[in-house]
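We modelled the chain as a single entity of 305 amino acids. Its sequence is:
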Amino acid sequence: MSAQTTKGRDFHRLTPVWNIAFHAVAGIFALLCVFPFLFVTVISFTDESTLAKNGYQLFPEKWSVEAYTYLFKAGDQLLRSYGVTIAVTLIGTVIGVVFTALFAYAISRHSFKYRNFFAFFAFFTMLFNGGLVPTYIIVTQLLGLKDSIWALILPLAVNAFYIMILRTFFSTMVPDAIIESGKIDGAGEFGIFFKLVLPLSLPGLATIALFSTLGYWNDWFNALLYINTPNLVPLQSMLMRIENSMQFIMQNSQNASLSMGVLQSMPQDTSRMAMVVLATGPIVFAYPFFQRYFIQGLTVGAVKE
């Protein structure tokens, strides 16, 4: 029996052991990623007095929904903020993905005469921008989007970094032969783009859509700048206002005798954790819908025959 055959058999004997070890390491790493969110969720359902007495515990002595009751006192305003955030996220993601895909596809085609100019134009905005004051003037005065839902959508609609990612994806995964076959069949540029290019680019589009969704969902700065109407305040901005109100009461409790009663009944730490759960929960449940395409977008083209 040759030495090579012996080594092969020894390797096959060790393979199940290595598989178990790799799965164990991957499981531990996944647990470490998920554990912080689970721990925050547990704290948000912990009684405030128990938390003050025993500190943070994975299995608290007393459970409570007082933090969520305190936050949901806003009632209709909280639901309205959820609705605004969902609408902004859906509309903004669709607009952003469409415009990003159109721009990236154009500069990825070698037949486009001015592709280098527009690629440099997009890349230049990654290095330099006009600044906060000019942006504010354009949005509020030139475009007149003050106190408008579009002020939450348009500033984040097109991202130069996403354009560069998608341009590379189009250049790598959409060969010129497919484009030429569409032209031979008589399809126009938009027909080729929507019927041939987009179906082949779902992993890349899903990756950009996920990034865009996270950007819109977590955005609070644009609402701080452009939104004064309570009915248009998104979720993240509203939670920040609740947090600021709690801090104001805590800081001024010594100057007002009536504030002490309010302060004692206020779930301070657990409310902060409940805010995290309310802000991140929908994204956690939405991520599995993007996961398959997201992984494909990261690994596509990694192995070539």
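As a brief sanity check on the tokenised model: The two ends are 33 Å apart (CA to CA). The first helix runs from residue 3 to 44.
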